[in-house]
Design goal:
This protein is of the alpha/beta class. It has helices spanning about 35-55, 80-85, 95-105, 125-130, 145-155, 210-225, 250-265, 270, 280-290, 295-300, 320-325, 345-350, 365-375, and strands at about 5, 20, 30, 60-65, 70-75, 115-120, 135-140, 160-165, 175-180, 180-185, 230-235, 240-245, 330-335, 355-360, 380.
Length: about 400
C-alpha cells in the first residue's frame, strides 16, 4: 500500500489528510483501527527509538509516546520488589517485552495517559493484557502473537490502533518536510549512538560503570527522538524524567529533574503506604499520588476530597521528609541533546542524584561545567554529538 487516508491532520479542521510514499509501499500495516496524523508521528518516532535501544543494549525495548516526544523509554531490566509495587505488578512474573513496557509506562504515568506504544520485539499476550487496562491510543511493533492481537482488537470497543512495522525497512538517506509552502531537505539523523560516544571524559572522575553506560545510552537515544531542547534522566534501564521542548536548557534540566524526583518519591514509604480504596482505578491513584507529593496536598486536606480515594486521611508528606528521602537518590545518569552552557544545570542535576552525565560539549564555558562536575565528583562524558530533533 503506497497511500493511507487519515481521519484528519493535527487538528479536526485539517482535512483531507494522508500519508504516502513516492516510491514503494508504506513500511507498516494497519491491523486494527484507523490512524490519525499524530498517531503516525508518534508511531514512527517511537519505532526508531526502540529499534536503536535494542541495537545499543541487546535488550527488548519499549517507549511510551505523547505528542511526538517520549513520556518514557526503557529496556528489559528486571524490576525490584519496590518498583513492582510502584508499577502495580506485585508478584507477577513478567516477560522481557512486558518488563520494558511496564518500565516505560511507569516513568511518568500521568504523561503516559493516552500514549502511543512502541515495542522493539513481538507483542506477547502479557504485554497486550497490561495495555488492555491502560488508557492508550495505539501500538506499533514488528509482530504480534495471535492471542495478543485478539486482546488488542477488543480494546476501545474494537477501535484500538494496532500497527505492524516492517522491521527490515530502511528509509532513504534524505528526508523532506514542508512548512508554509517551503520544502526543507536534510540528511536523516542516522548517527549511531553506542559506548564509543562516552570515551572523552574530561572530569577528574573518569569511572562510569557498565550499568551507568547503559543508562547514558538510553538517555541519549531517547533524546534523539525528543523535541528539543531536551534533557533526560535515566536509572535502572529506563528514563525516569524527560524535559522536552523548552527554550532554556536549565528549564529542561529542572523539568526533567522534577519528574525524576517524583519517580523517587513514589518509592517512599509514605507513598507506598497510602490507604487507597480498593475500587479506585489506577489513573485516579496516579492523580492522587501526584497531588500527595506536590505542594497542594495540605490545601486538599482542608476539604473532604481525599475521601474519594482513601479509606482514611493520610498524613502530610512534609517538605523535610521529601528532602530527606530524595537525598538517598544516587547513581542517576543524565543526557543532554546539546551542550550545557552553564554549571547551573549540573547544580540542579546533582539535587536529583545525578552521578553520570553525557553531553555534547562545545560551550565556551565548558571549563565551568567541568569544574561544577568535579565539585560533586560527577563523571561526565563529552559525546561531541548534538541531538536536536524538530
Amino acid at each position: 500500500m503506497k497511500e493511507l487516508e487519515l481521519k484528519y491532520g493535527c487538528n479536526p479542521n485539517q482535512k483531507p489528510a494522508r500519508v504516502y510514499r513516492e516510491q514503494g509501499d508504506l513500511p507498516f500495516t494497519v491491523l486494527n483501527g484507523k490512524p490519525g496524523y499524530i498517531n503516525l508521528l508518534d508511531a514512527l518516532n517511537g519505532w526508531q527509538l526502540v529499534r536503536e535501544l535494542r541495537a545499543a543494549t541487546g535488550l527488548p525495548a519499549a517507549a511510551s509516546f505523547k505528542h511526538v516526544s517520549p513520556a518514557g523509554a526503557a529496556v528489559a531490566v528486571p524490576l525490584d520488589a519496590t518498583l513492582e509495587k510502584v508499577y502495580f505488578v506485585e508478584g507477577v512474573e513478567l516477560s522481557p517485552v512486558a518488563t520494558a513496557y511496564i518500565r516505560a509506562r511507569g516513568a511518568d504515568r500521568m504523561s503516559s495517559y493516552g500514549d502511543f506504544v512502541a515495542l522493539s520485539d513481538e507483542c506477547d499476550a502479557q504485554t497486550a493484557s497490561f495495555l488492555a487496562r491502560e488508557v492508550s491510543d495505539g501500538i506499533i511493533a514488528p509482530s504480534y502473537s495471535a492471542e495478543a492481537l485478539e486482546i488488542l482488537k477488543g480494546k476501545r470497543k474494537g477501535t484500538y490502533l494496532v500497527l505492524q512495522m516492517d522491521a527490515a525497512f530502511q528509509p532513504e538517506p534524505f528526508e523532506h518536510k514542508e512548512v508554509f509552502g517551503v520544502t526543507f531537505e536534510q540528511k536523516r539523523n542516522d548517527i549511531k549512538i553506542d559506548e564509543s560516544c562516552l570515551k572523552d571524559i574530561p572530569t577528574r572522575n573518569k569511572i562510569i560503570p557498565e550499568d551507568a553506560k547503559r543508562d547514558l545510552l538510553i538517555a541519549l537515544i531517547t533524546l534523539k527522538y525528543t523535541q528539543s531542547n531536551s534533557v533526560c534522566y535515566a536509572k535502572g534501564g529506563q528514563a525516569i524524567g524527560i524535559g522536552a521542548g523548552q527554550q532554556s536548557r536549565v528549564h529542561c534540566t529542572r523539568l526533567a529533574g522534577q519528574k525524576a524526583d517524583n519517580w523517587f518519591l513514589r518509592q517512599s514509604p509514605q507513598v507506598l503506604s497510602l490507604p487507597f480504596k480498593e475500587e479506585v482505578r489506577r489513573p485516579d491513584r496516579d492523580n492522587a499520588i501526584d497531588v500527595y507529593i506536590g505542594e497542594e496536598w495540605e490545601d486538599l486536606l482542608e476539604t473532604d476530597d481525599w475521601k474519594r480515594v482513601f479509606t482514611e486521611k493520610p498524613p502530610v508528606f512534609t517538605r523535610e521528609e521529601k528532602k530527606a528521602w530524595l537525598k538517598k537518590a544516587t547513581g542517576v545518569a543524565l543526557g543532554s541533546d546539546a551542550f550545557f552552557p552553564f554549571g547551573d544545570n549540573i547544580e540542579r542535576a546533582y539535587k536529583s542524584g545525578v552521578s553520570f552525565i553525557a553531553q555534547s560539549g562545545g560551550s565556551i564555558r565548558d571549563d565551568n561545567v567541568i569544574e561544577t562536575c568535579d565539585k560533586y565528583d560527577i563523571a561526565m562524558a563529552m559525546t561531541h554529538i548534538r541531538l536536536f530533533h524538530h
